[in-house]
Specification:
There is one protein chain. This protein is α/β, with parallel strands linked by helices. The chain has helices at residues 4-10, 22-28, 33-39, 54-63, 65-69, 98-119, 125-137, 145-162, 192-196, 202-216, 227-230, 235-251, 266-272, 293-304, 308-314, 318-322, 325-335, 349-356, 366-385, 399-421, 426-430, 441-448, 452-464, 483-489, and strands at residues 45-48, 73-77, 169-171, 178-181, 185-186, 200-201, 219-224, 258-265, 286-288, 436-440, 469-472, 477-480, 492-495. Strands 2-7-8-1-9 form a 5-stranded parallel β-sheet, sandwiched between helices. β11 (469-472) and β12 (477-480) form a beta hairpin.
């Protein structure tokens, strides 16, 4: 039978970023109602906070490609699973409007679908029209996604520069008569003259591609993830790109065999639609990922039980545990101590873990929880190496090891997430360092040396991005800083006075 040290030597709760554990995700995967809906094709748009598992579901769809193919579904990732985003180069010379961005999305999707048509089904006029148009536009058989996006950008740029009136025709400079076709995919619906020359709109070509796929018995799911990274260069770029994407998704709902599947952070969705998005009520095939203490316990145990020595140490089978909630509860408390912070009124370990890894939105998510547990395992190993006693009873982790892990997670969350994504708030957040955990509008005025109105505006922004949790009353709000940020900022428990 393995010792605790043996088990700790192999114990991992997985990578906190899904892209870093692509192969292992299949082993961790446990089917839920949410994932059933997605795999059955009932859901097209998946919302969720950062770290909630959107990328994990996206990766699972890719890994289950053969299983889906047996149902006639072909998976086409539209973004690189890791590394530089495919849309990275858009920021250098972006489309000037949502309308132009819509064309870019449609031409890009058409190019991806062209791969499927080329590899599947018999030759037919509809398929040939689509492939010929892609070939002439230079959008056929581009090997990597980034190169494909660049090809679409170059083609679209030529259309944008000439204006949609030309729609892909080359005109004789003296007579003004069309002298040839420079590309058969137009920005808008072609005129009768353009149509006679073989020009078709992206919408028309998508419809032809959809019909060709139907004749071959195939469906294409185009997967879009990492959109928070793809357009991070500019808030305006992000807004135009994502609003256009969702308009395109709605336009493509008429297609029966081509479906974009969008994985998007809900805070970004709220930001890009802050000015209004009338069609939002039409996005009905959507779901928001949410986690509860029970589902997070299930997640943690599904990962821990992937370790053979842990199963041997506790003499359990993975399926038996994951199929029985009472057994999950029993095993959890064998692995973990009853409490992290000692004292009668202190929360139990599960409550402590969730409260320390959520931000001001109070929505628990797997990312920081997994990172905290992995760091606790590292701390426990170091403690044993230094001669400390093993955790009592069956526990693999002691309360001291878990508590010692939090500062590392706090620092990572502050610098790698908050400051990395919202650099504009760094000065204001750091101005609160070594201060109190709860602030008032008045204390923020003093800390930031700003007016009451400016303090209120900045505090509301920090609340929206989860740095503050707003408490108190409407007339006298208090801004409470979540545990996840406290250690990194060396905060002291209590409410700041107006002069602090």
């Amino acid at each position: 039978m393995p010792t605790k040290r043996d088990v700790l030597g192999e114990l991992r709760f997985g990578a906190h970023v899904a892209e870093d554990e692509q192969a292992a995700l299949v082993n961790y995967f446990v089917e839920t109602d949410l994932t059933k809906q997605i795999f059955n094709g009932d859901i097209d748009v998946v919302f969720g906070p950062k770290g909630s598992g959107k990328s994990a579901i996206h990766l699972l769809l890719v890994h289950k490609g053969n299983e889906l193919l047996a149902r006639g579904v072909i998976i086409k990732p539209a973004e690189n699973l890791r590394g530089a985003p495919a849309f990275k180069d858009v920021a250098g010379d972006p489309p000037a409007s949502e309308h132009e961005f819509s064309f870019l999305w449609k031409a890009y999707f058409l190019s991806l679908v062209g791969d499927v048509l080329r590899e599947n089904g018999s030759e037919n006029p509809k398929k040939r029209q689509v492939l010929d148009a892609l070939q002439e536009a230079g959008l056929a058989e581009v090997s990597d996604l980034r190169g494909r996006v660049l090809a679409v950008i170059r083609y679209a740029k030529r259309l944008f520069e000439r204006g949609s009136v030309e729609g892909g025709l080359k005109f004789d400079p003296l007579s003004g008569i069309p002298s040839g076709v420079t590309g058969k995919i137009s920005l808008n619906e072609p005129s009768p003259e353009q149509a006679r020359s073989g020009v078709k709109s992206a919408d028309n070509l998508l419809k032809l591609a959809d019909e060709a796929l139907g004749e071959s018995g195939k469906n294409v799911w185009i997967l879009l993830d990492r959109l928070d990274v793809a357009f991070a260069e500019s808030a305006l770029l992000e807004e135009n790109a994502l609003r256009a994407l969702l308009h395109v998704y709605l336009d493509m709902r008429v297609l029966e065999h081509i479906t974009p599947k969008v994985f998007l952070r809900d805070d970004i969705w709220q930001r890009v639609t802050a000015k209004g998005f009338r069609e939002s009520s039409h996005i009905t095939r959507q779901i928001t990922i949410s986690w509860t203490p029970r589902t997070l316990t299930h997640l943690v145990l599904s990962r821990a039980l992937d370790v053979p020595k842990l199963r041997e140490y506790y003499n359990v089978a993975k399926k038996d545990i994951l199929d029985d909630s009472s057994k999950q509860n029993e095993l959890f408390w064998r692995i973990f101590p009853p409490k992290v912070a000692q004292g009668e009124k202190r929360p139990d370990t599960l409550t402590w873990l969730l409260s320390r890894t959520q931000d001001g939105t109070r929505r628990p998510a797997p990312r920081e929880l997994i990172q905290l547990l992995n760091e606790a395992r590292n701390e426990q190993t170091k403690m044993l190496d230094l001669g400390d006693e093993e955790p009592p009873g069956d526990n693999l982790l002691s309360h001291g090891a878990i508590d010692a892990a939090l500062p590392t997670i706090s620092k990572a969350r502050l610098h790698q997430t908050l400051f990395a994504e919202y650099p504009e708030v760094k000065a204001k957040v750091e101005a609160l360092k070594q201060g109190k955990t709860s602030q008032t509008t008045k204390s923020l005025e003093t800390a930031w040396s700003v007016s009451a109105a400016d303090a209120q505006f900045a505090a509301n922004h920090l609340t929206q991005i989860g740095f503050f949790e707003k408490r108190g009353t409407r007339d006298e709000p208090q801004y409470w800083i979540p545990f996840i940020y406290r250690s990194a900022l060396e905060l002291v428990q209590g409410t700041a006075s107006d002069s602090e």
